[in-house]
């Protein structure tokens, strides 16, 4: 197997894409006073924290709440938990956030955690969308769409989690 890696996004590009996603979220939720970002542990949550900070800077009049959802990705059935009660999202606009969208299973599981909560609307945001859908899930907001083969991997490094400079690599 090849160890060749190709840089997809560097630190500055990740920041630029994050700001663009934040603007798109604001445009989509112009009339909302309260937005709930649901970050998928681990890197999705870090990315959601960054989006929250950017959104608070762009729109200090909006309440931007952050919920962490942890999913058991090994099981073939939904097993998810949140750090705040699921009802936190009731009657609000919810954005489920992850670093990479591959098959859609992780996002589908995260969306499923909120299936019994009445929401105003639900959207998804990812840094990189690989476009290999196995589940009927798409990215509403994305930083980069990338056509890859299934054998390739996308590795995202976020400083707060990985203790190294932000970067996204195709390996």
TrEMBL record:
The keyword Transferase applies. Pfam families: Pribosyltran. The lineage of its organism: Bacteria, Pseudomonadati, Bacteroidota, Sphingobacteriia, Sphingobacteriales. GO terms for molecular function: glycosyltransferase activity. This is Phosphoribosyltransferase. Keywords: Glycosyltransferase, Transferase. Residues 8-142 form the Phosphoribosyltransferase domain. The keyword Glycosyltransferase applies. It comes from Sphingobacterium litopenaei. It comes from the Bacteria. InterPro entries: PRTase-like, PRTase_dom, PyrR_bifunctional.
């Amino acid at each position: 197997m090849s160890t060749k890696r190709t840089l997809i996004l560097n630190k500055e590009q990740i920041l630029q894409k994050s700001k663009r996603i934040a603007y798109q979220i604001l445009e989509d939720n112009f009339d909302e006073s309260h937005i709930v970002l649901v970050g998928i542990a681990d890197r999705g949550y870090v990315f959601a924290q960054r989006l929250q900070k950017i959104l608070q800077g762009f729109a200090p009049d909006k309440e931007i709440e952050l919920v962490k959802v942890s999913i058991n990705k090994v099981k073939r059935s939904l097993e998810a938990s949140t750090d705040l009660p699921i009802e936190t999202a009731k009657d609000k606009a919810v954005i489920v956030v992850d670093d990479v969208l591959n098959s859609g299973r992780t996002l589908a599981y995260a969306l499923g955690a909120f299936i019994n909560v009445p929401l105003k609307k639900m959207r998804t945001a990812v840094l990189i969308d690989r476009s290999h859908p196995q589940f009927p899930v798409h990215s509403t907001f994305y930083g980069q769409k990338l056509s890859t083969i299934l054998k390739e991997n996308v590795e995202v490094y976020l400083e707060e989690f990985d203790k190294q400079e932000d970067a996204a690599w195709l390996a």
